[in-house]
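Q: Given only this backbone (348 positions), what sequence would you predict?
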């Protein structure tokens, strides 16, 4: 698996996912502004990977603030400004704010401006390591839900490229294969940014995992043909009641899965849950540049002057979700009660 994130101690190197699969190149982030730009431009994407990258962005900010601040108060003010700038990159993925706020808490807890940069760099490395371990636990829990042979339909990219490694939705696939199960994947191309075609198909092929690419509009057809055994997707934010925000098109897949009596699974870490909101109606949906729809690789495919709608995410109501696969276990429907039980230490 290609490393998505590389920390050198002085810079952060991020695999430029806008150039995959044709070019495997890394962008070098020398400061938190570079990290924010990489997140905003989707050079790095996927909620867990965004969170890890933002954590390193805060470490870079701490080194910069150390040279500018003349007191602890001005140091923390500098960090607060960097945090707000990083969080503004993308509003929907909760892991971004989660990681940044965790870094801010660590800075205040450390209390000594001279020690904060090293402390934050260490914490960012711990967050990266923890994300990999969490993905592997998600994979193990999710693999138990899959039969053998089984064909999985997935949307967008929730694999090693979207995390610190291994993946969430694709982590379930990898764990099932490692357990000796025969698994095949169908990948939606995921318009308009083509994460399924460019990234999911790419990383599965790199790992010699059987993958078939389809357009988004073919999902209903392949389900009707009895080809798909289950749908597994990732998540960018999950409300307290189990409503799931994920890449645009996910909601449609959930409706189709229900119609065809196919299990619809969401694989995501507990950090993706936003317990401050009660339902998906409260989730801010990022609206991106219309040129992402009107153009493909810089070539205009739509008439000039037309209006374009380009929401990056949609929200799947929890009633369409068969189960949410977390590092702590599987939360079965109804999700809200299952989540409460799981977090209290019970088994689902």
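A: Predicted residues:
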């Amino acid at each position: 698996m290609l490393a998505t994130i590389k920390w050198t101690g002085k810079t952060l190197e991020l695999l430029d996912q806008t150039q995959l699969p044709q070019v495997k190149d890394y962008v070098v982030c020398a400061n938190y502004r570079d990290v924010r730009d990489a997140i905003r431009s989707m050079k790095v994407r996927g909620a867990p990977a965004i969170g890890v990258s933002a954590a390193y962005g805060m470490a870079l900010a701490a080194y910069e603030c150390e040279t500018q601040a003349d007191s602890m108060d001005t140091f923390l003010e500098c960090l607060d400004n960097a945090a707000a700038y990083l969080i503004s990159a993308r509003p929907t993925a909760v892991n971004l704010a989660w990681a940044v706020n965790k870094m801010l808490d660590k800075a205040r807890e450390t209390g000594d401006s001279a020690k904060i940069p090293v402390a934050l760099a260490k914490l960012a490395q711990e967050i990266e390591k923890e994300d990999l371990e969490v993905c592997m636990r998600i994979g193990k829990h999710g693999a138990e839900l899959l039969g053998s042979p089984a064909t999985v339909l997935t949307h967008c990219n929730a694999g090693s490229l979207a995390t610190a490694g291994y993946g969430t939705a694709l982590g379930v696939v990898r764990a099932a294969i490692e357990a000796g199960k025969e698994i095949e994947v169908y990948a939606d191309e995921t318009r308009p940014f083509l994460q399924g075609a460019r990234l999911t198909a790419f990383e599965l092929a790199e790992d010699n995992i059987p993958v078939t690419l389809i357009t988004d509009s073919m999902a209903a057809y392949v389900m009707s043909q009895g080809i798909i055994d289950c749908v597994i997707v990732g998540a960018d934010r999950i409300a307290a009641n189990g409503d799931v925000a994920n890449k645009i098109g996910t909601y449609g897949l959930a409706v189709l899965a229900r119609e065809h009596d196919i299990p619809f699974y969401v694989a995501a870490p507990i950090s993706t849950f936003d317990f401050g909101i009660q339902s998906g109606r409260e989730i801010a949906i990022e609206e991106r540049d219309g040129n992402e729809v009107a153009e493909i690789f810089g070539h205009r495919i739509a008439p000039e002057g037309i209006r374009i709608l380009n929401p990056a995410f949609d929200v799947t109501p929890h009633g369409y979700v068969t189960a949410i696969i977390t590092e702590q276990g599987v939360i079965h429907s109804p999700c809200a009660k299952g989540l409460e039980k799981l977090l209290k230490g019970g088994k689902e």
